[in-house]
Write a structure and sequence with these properties.
Layout (H helix, E strand, L loop, with lengths): L3 H9 L8 E11 L2 E10 L2 E2 L2 E2 L2 E12 L2 E9 L15 H19 L2 H25 L2 H7 L18
Antiparallel strand pairs: 1-2, 2-5, 3-4, 5-6
């Protein structure tokens, strides 16, 4: 199969659950807090009763941040067309779409209390329900090890919620 349009058409109805991918033969070169590497992909999708064999190569760039190694860039195979050398990772439109999500993520990291306050009642009720069910099923010892501070009382739903 060759050409972008043929590949797009193929994957437009591609049943992901019928695919198996194997990534292997990693080669990594580390220089300080940066690294490069490559690995190979063997994919075995099945579509419309036909079995395909897809192979490729990933070229990776790694960076160590706060003591943990992360992928900085992953490219599926070497760039073979010079017009693709300077492709941007995200367009301005894509950046605008992601901006609110990134702001929310940053906000949750810097000031998480409003989010914790909003989810805590539901979490407390869920943990209490889990404990009550463990009491009823005779599995209290395992629950006490995991949740020693949660009381086996199911609090009533907040005012205005009613029954569901």
């Amino acid at each position: 199969m060759r050409g972008r349009e043929n590949i797009r058409a193929f994957f437009a109805t591609f049943p992901v659950q019928s695919a198996r991918q194997f990534i292997h033969s990693h080669v990594v070169d580390v220089q300080g807090d940066r690294g490069t590497g490559f690995s190979y992909l063997d994919g075995r999708p099945v579509r419309d009763g036909k079995s395909y064999y897809v192979v490729g190569r990933f070229d990776d760039e790694y960076i160590r941040l706060d003591g943990q190694w992360m992928f900085q860039r992953v490219v599926f195979g070497p760039v073979t067309h010079s017009e693709n050398e300077n492709l941007k990772d995200l367009t301005w439109r894509e950046r605008l779409v992601f901006a609110p999500l990134l702001i929310l993520i940053f906000w949750m990291g810097v000031a998480p209390q409003p989010f914790i306050d909003r989810t805590e009642p539901a979490l407390t009720r869920t943990l209490a329900l889990m404990r009550a069910r463990a009491v009823a099923s005779g599995r209290m010892s395992a629950v006490n090890e995991i949740l020693p501070d949660v009381q086996p009382v199911i609090p009533p739903p907040p005012a205005g919620e009613g029954s569901r």
